[in-house]
Write a structure and sequence with these properties.
single chain, about 220 residues, alpha/beta, eight-stranded parallel beta sheet, about 45% helix, about 20% strand
Length: about 220
């Protein structure tokens, strides 16, 4: 299964979702590849941090950086070698970000409440419409993310309105909190389910998202 994480606002939320989903699938015994198509290489750095610091305590997650031109042919070769491929794609409209959506079974669109001013509806919709010309079965799941435990209702309303304008997009029911546990786990090469001290709410949110993406 190919999962693409894509948005227009950038930020760490996109990579955090990609890395956590890859780690959870690896922990479930799946052979997973994390493809990093973002110039910031946050997911490759996360994988390197994981390999260096986890000491074999947790399943390793193979990750590689890939450019736009190489993405499509690489996916054709890798699809036979991995159960799941998670793509952390770049935020801007590019050959790589379009190819990642065209290849995906599910596209996850993170909507970060701290970056609402950077949302660009027109560009994101254009990428999705292009992808659907080649991939009409593409399933789109929007995920609202907040660093605040109780974000303002006005922010959530703006995010919901943005998602409502994406044709056939489904809004994930659970708000993902990008608080200290999720961010510190990400910085240490861990999933939030591996981070100590455990944050039961953050773990539950991420497991719900993983189930929604892979089991639906």
């Amino acid at each position: 299964m190919i999962i693409t994480i894509a948005n227009e606002s950038g930020g760490a939320s996109k990579s955090m979702l990609a890395d956590n989903l890859a780690a959870l699938r690896s922990a479930a015994g799946r052979k997973v590849l994390l493809l990093d198509n973002d110039p910031q290489h946050a997911s490759v750095d996360w994988s390197s941090e994981r390999a260096a610091n986890c000491g074999g305590m947790y399943p390793q997650v193979a990750a590689r950086s890939i450019t736009g031109k190489g993405l499509q042919p690489e996916l054709e070769n890798l699809g036979y070698r991995y159960n799941d491929i998670v793509i952390d794609t770049e935020s801007r409209d590019s050959l790589g970000s379009r190819s990642a959506l065209i290849a995906a079974h599910v596209a996850i669109i993170p909507v970060d409440l701290e970056r609402l001013e950077q949302l660009n509806e027109e560009k994101l919709l254009a990428r999705i419409e292009t992808a659907r010309l080649f991939n009409p079965r593409l399933r789109i799941l929007a995920v609202i993310i907040s660093s605040e435990q109780h974000p303002a209702a006005e922010k959530i309303a703006v995010a919901r309105d943005f998602v409502a304008r994406i044709p056939s997009a489904r809004l994930f029911d659970t708000l993902i909190h990008s608080g200290s546990a999720l961010r510190q786990a990400f910085q240490g090469g861990l999933s939030v389910c591996e981070y100590q001290p455990a944050d039961p709410d953050a773990i539950s949110e991420m497991k719900e998202l993983c189930s929604e993406v892979f089991d639906s």
